[in-house]
Amino acid sequence: MSNVFSFTGTVGRDAEVRYAPSGMAILNVTVANNIGFGEKQQTLWIRVVLFGKRAEGQLQNYLKKGQQVFVSGELSQSEYTGADGVTKTSLELSANIIDLVGKRGENSGSTSPREYTPAKQSPNVETYDAPYDDDIPF
C-alpha cells in the first residue's frame, strides 16, 4: 500500500456497525484530528471505515465519543454538494490499524484494553515483513 495516512484523534460519536447486502460487516466511526495551533488551529473530521471480520468484533464497544485513538490506513477524498448548494470535501480512511491510546474522557471509570490489533489483513493489502535483528551491538 503506497497511500498510508496515520494520525491520532478523538472519536466524535460512537462507532456503528452495519452489514452490506452480502453480509460483510462495516464499522463506521468519525474521528477529529486537530492541526495547527492557537488562532490557526483547525479540526479535520475524518470518516474511518473498517471492513469484514475486524468490524464484527468488540471494537465498537470501545470506540465511544471522546475516546482517543491512533488510526492508520488508506486515505481518500471526495467532493459533494451540500444541502446549501456549496461544494464540500469529505475525507475517508479505510483503516488497517485502530489502536486505543488514551482514556475516554474525564468521567470514564471503566478500564478498557489499550490496544486493538487486527486479526488479519485484508487480501488486497500488501505487507512487507522485514527481518528483525535482536543482536544490536549497542
Write the layout of secondary structure elements.
Blueprint: E1 5-19, E2 25-35, E3 42-51, H1 53-56, E4 68-81, E5 87-100
Parallel strand pairs: 3-5
Antiparallel strand pairs: 1-2, 1-4, 2-3, 4-5
Tags for this entry?
OB fold (Dihydrolipoamide Acetyltransferase, E2P); 5 strands; globular; 46% strand; mainly beta; 138 residues; 5-stranded mixed beta barrel
Describe the protein's architecture and organization.
By secondary structure, this protein is an all-beta fold. It has a single domain, classed as Nucleic acid-binding proteins (OB fold (Dihydrolipoamide Acetyltransferase, E2P), Beta Barrel). It contains one helix and five strands, in the order βββαββ. Strands 1-2-3-5-4 form a five-stranded mixed beta barrel. A hairpin with a 5-residue loop joins β1 (5-19) and β2. The longest helix is centred in the middle third of the chain and has 4 residues, at 53-56. 14% of the residues are buried. Mean pLDDT is 80; it is low at 106-122 and 124-130.
Corresponding CATH architecture: Beta Barrel
Strand content: over 45%
Structural domains: how many: 1
CATH topology tier name: OB fold (Dihydrolipoamide Acetyltransferase, E2P)
What summary fits the major beta sheet?
Answer: 5 strands, mixed, barrel
Using only CA atoms, what is the Rg? 17 Å
Helix share, percent: under 10%
With helices defined by DSSP (H or I, 4 residues minimum), what is the helix count?
1
Q: Residue-averaged pLDDT, rounded?
A: 80
Distance between the termini: 33 Å
Short summary:
This protein is an all-beta fold. It has one helix spanning 53-56, and strands spanning 5-19, 25-35, 42-51, 68-81, 87-100. Strand 2 (25-35) and strand 3 form a beta hairpin.
